[in-house]
Each structure stands twice: as C-alpha cells, then as structure tokens.
Amino acid sequence: MSQTVPSIIEKNQEDLKKDAKIRELWMKNICDHGKHAKFKIKETYDFIVIGAGTAGCVLARELVHGIPNINLLVLEAGGPNVHTNGIISLPCAWYKAFRLYDCDWGYVTQEQKMKSHVNPTKEVTVKKGIPYPRGKVWGGCSSLNGMVYMQVSRGQAKQYNDWAAQGPEYKIWDWDHCLEAFKAIENNSRENPDEKFKQFHGFNGLHHVQDFQNGVYDIMSDLIDVAKNLGIPYNDDFNGERQNGVGRYQTNNEKGKRCSLADGYLRDALKKVEFHPGSEPNGFGKVVAVDVRSYAHVLEIIWDEENKKENIATGVRYFCNGTVREAFIAPKGEVIICSGAINSPQILMLSGVGPKENLEANNIKIRKELPVGKNLLDHPSCYSVAKSTPSTVRHWSSGAEIGIIHKANVEGKIPCKEDFFDENPDIQIIATPFQPGLVDGLNDDGIMLVSILNVPSSVGYLELNSNNPFDQPRIHLNYFETSDDLYRMISSLKLCREIFKQPPLSTVYNVKEIGINDNTNGDDISDEDWEKFVLEKSITTFHPSGTVKMAPESKGGVVNHRLQVYGTKNLRVVDASIFPYIPAGNTNAPTAMVAWRASRLIIEDYTRKNSL
C-alpha cells in the first residue's frame, strides 16, 4: 500500500489569527497553572546532559550503567523519534528525514563572498545562505542522516594520532584508544568476517552496522565495475586496513530499519530504573534512572554566584511547556553539553564563555574568554547527476550504497592511477540511485555522484546574532576559501564525468549527465566555469565540527584533553564540536566514539571525587 507524501499547506490570514488565538489561550492556561501550583520540586540530578543526540544518547547509557546509584537528566529540544516513526525508521525515506520541519533546527548559513581563485580580479558569491540541517529529535542527526557507517580506517589513523600529538596528556586520544571505543560501540553483523575484519570491528555493542541485505541495483553494481576498469582498487571494508578504493558501504541498519543512537543507546539506558531507600529518617530514598525531558530548550548554564573567584556550574536554566525551569546538579555532579557543533558553542556563549568581542556586543557578562565558535570544520560537497533508462531505479534504496574514496589532484586534473592507490585519500564520492525530489528541479530516474571534500583546509566560524537564546547564530562556512580545496573538488568532479561516460553506464543504461553543462560548451569547461559551478552547487554534507576545540588553551583550545571547559568547574562538552581536526569520513561514528571515551573519563573523575 503506497503512502502519499503530504502536500504543503499554505496558511491564510484567517488561519494565522486562529493560531495566534490558540497560543494566547495556551499561555493563559500555563500562567493560571503556575499561579495555583502549591509547591515545586527542586530538580536535582547527579548529571545533566544537554542534548539527546548521538553523543548524549551514548553518554547517558554508559554513565547510568558505569556509575552505581546515579540519576541523570537529559534535556532535548526536540521530541522522541517515534513521533515521525515512519519516515525516520525507513532507510528508503532517508532523504525526506532530514527535511522534517519538527526534527530540524532550521539553520541557514550566512552569505559568503570571496575573490575568485581562478581570476583574482573578480569577486564571486559562493552562496546566499544554504539550509543547514541539524537534528532536533531523539538521536539527533543519527535519526536523520544517510546512515553511512564510517569510523575512518587504519590507513587514516594519523588523523587521530594528530589529536594525540598535542601533548603527552592527549595520548588518550590516539588511534589505539579510539579504535577500542569504536569496537566497543559497534555491533557488526557481517557474515563470516575474516580475522583482518575482526581487528577493526566490534560485534557486541549497541550501534548496529550491516552490509546491504538486499544487494544493490544492477546499475550500481556495474558502476563498481566501471570504477575498477578505470584503475580504482576494490575495497570491501572502508573502515579496515585502508580507506581508498571503490566498494559498498556498511550502514546503521537493523532488521531493515534505521538504527539511530536513540534506538541503540538511549532506549537501553531508559530500561534501568531502580529504587534505593534513603538512610535518613523519613527519607524517600533515591530513584536511579535516566529522565529525558523533550521539547526542553536550554537557555543558559546556572553558575554559583556566591563564588566570585571561580566559574562553578551548578545547573541549567531551560524553557519547557511554556515555562522557565531550573535543574541542578548534586555535589560532585556535572553539567555535560552534548548539543552539537552549532548549539554547544551557542549555549556556552549565552552563558558567558566565548570571544570577548562577540559577547560584549550582545551584552553578555564575560565569565571566561575563549575562542568558542571558531574552528568550524565541515565537509563541503558537490553533486553530479545523470539520468538513465526509465525504471532502472525503483525507489527502495537506502541511499548511500556505493563509495569511491580517492586522492584528488591538487591542480584540478582527473586523478591518475597513483592517486587511486594513495592510502591517504581526501575525497569521498557517494554513489546513490537518484530519486525524484532529492535535488530541486530534477525529476528524472538515474544516479547521483556526490563528491565530498573529506580533508578540507578552509575553516569557518559561528557567532551569536543576539543574546536571545531562541535566535539562530550566524554561521559562516567559508567553503573553498583556499584554492587547494577548490581544485581538489574540481578534480573529483572530472572523475565523476569520466565515470558517467563509461560503458555499460553510457550504453546499457543510457546514462546522460545533466545539470553541469547548463552554462558551458559541452566538454570544453574552463577552470573559471568549473569554479562557478562548484561555488553555486556546493552543499553541506551535514558534518559540522570543531567549534569547541579540544586543544591546549594556548593553542586555541576551549576544552582540555578530558573535555572540561577551561576556566570552569563541573562543565564539559562532549560531541563533534570538540574535534580538533575533522575526521576524513562521516562524523556520526566518531562522535559516538568520543562520547564512549568521555564516559570513561567522567567515570574515573567521579570515582576519584567520591574516594576523597
């Protein structure tokens, strides 16, 4: 039975008046309820976790099972993922999931202008602002993403070792420690894995990973053969000994459905509910559990105002169900921000931790001056689309099926065989059956190749727009600010064009490229035309990170090696925002890894505090 996609309903002035009246009545009810409430229980928890995204889900589960007799509060601005269960759970609906209004923060980036790299006498506009989806739902972006499982291979271990090279205390973030965490989280269902596969994968975690259960389309299988014929080596495990090559992705699915971190970790955390009687006379005792408060928008961190010498976090002020509420941490507890690379820095800045100039401009008291919001890293991408013989694609695909990971040519030329065998690749091409509606204005069946710059050198930043906690921050991506990024992207796009031209894609399936030649002369595309195409068509791959950088404070760090915010107490940040350098692959698994590693650090510190 097919399901019709709901059409967009445009509200008229009468509808808007009715909406306003309902909101007015709702607010009156909230105010009346507040007047008649005879008492209010003080909310106190051992740990307060801000955000039920990838990191928050893992952290909540690991802490409640790793520390005896604690309770946790998880504050999530969105709702449970079951509210849109049909779209979120079905892998074939992945491209609709990240467009769900109720599950997305609705961010839009700032317009970007820069000098042309090809002709520096010209100024070009990269984008006038693009949608920047961020998960606002249980599971965060793991409930909305393309489900590609990418932890980065042993061949790219240097990236994590670079994290560890920042000082002797950072050794806890080297590849061996990170691999331990990846394996602990993962539950890989590959049948009959060989010993080499077992070296890099886990089989007992709660984050389910699997090969495609129903195979792939013929056209996609033939695309693999085309890539191999061009000299690209086959790779049956992008998370194994090496990352480069062409192969099939593994994805976060279980039994035909998406497996988000909410499905795997948060739901397991919620199963633990225990009661411990109090030792005091007439004491009720303590409930050991994880409480999740949905639709709770955090306003700021609460500080100990009596202590004038130190910035000691004591709780969180948040807005929920029409009222402002406060939750506090118990002695030896912590506030842990897990709100992602956009919201975590925003919460810190609203709480007085951030760049002096931006905070003063928004009349926010400065508690600690730190480069919060700087070092915004992301994987820019650009897509090539080709239509094919009708009915070649039937839309059950779960999206990202085939990957081609390669080294780009820094001069913008088509990569050569040596580039294909380079074990330090910097470009990832995701090959997916093209589905009508996936890209605005294109409604043909076919395939799409998305070139992703996995190792960007351009760096962006974000800043507060105001001191209004409901206001969007200003997001400056700075895509392709370096010529190196631009020419490497051009190199990959040229490879995509070459793939489309090869048989049997061009013969059996009648694959014909569309979109790229709109303003050019056939195959004769100048560097200036390529630059124009890349800057106009570039989009995000939804991998922002780095805005609360883990590094020594003297080197632009915001958190230390144990993810504690400099100049504060009882406050940590645990999510993709702490990445000092962005991993060369999809960021969901690395974010879960960071949360698992952080849980061990928090358990160590909590145990030490309680032994004093």
From TrEMBL:
Give one GO molecular function term: oxidoreductase activity, acting on CH-OH group of donors
Which Gene3D superfamilies does the UniProt record give?
3.30.410.40, FAD/NAD(P)-binding domain (3.50.50.60)
Give all residue intervals belonging to the Glucose-methanol-choline oxidoreductase N-terminal domain: 340-354
Superkingdom in the source lineage: Eukaryota
InterPro entries per the UniProt record, alphabetical = FAD/NAD-bd_sf (IPR036188), GMC_OxRdtase (IPR012132), GMC_OxRdtase_N (IPR000172), GMC_OxRtase_C (IPR007867)
Which cofactor does the UniProt annotation name? FAD
Question: Where, in this chain's numbering, is FAD bound?
Answer: 137, 145-148, 298
Keywords, sorted A to Z = FAD, Flavoprotein
| Protein family membership | Belongs to the GMC oxidoreductase family.
What is the protein named? Answer: GMC oxidoreductase
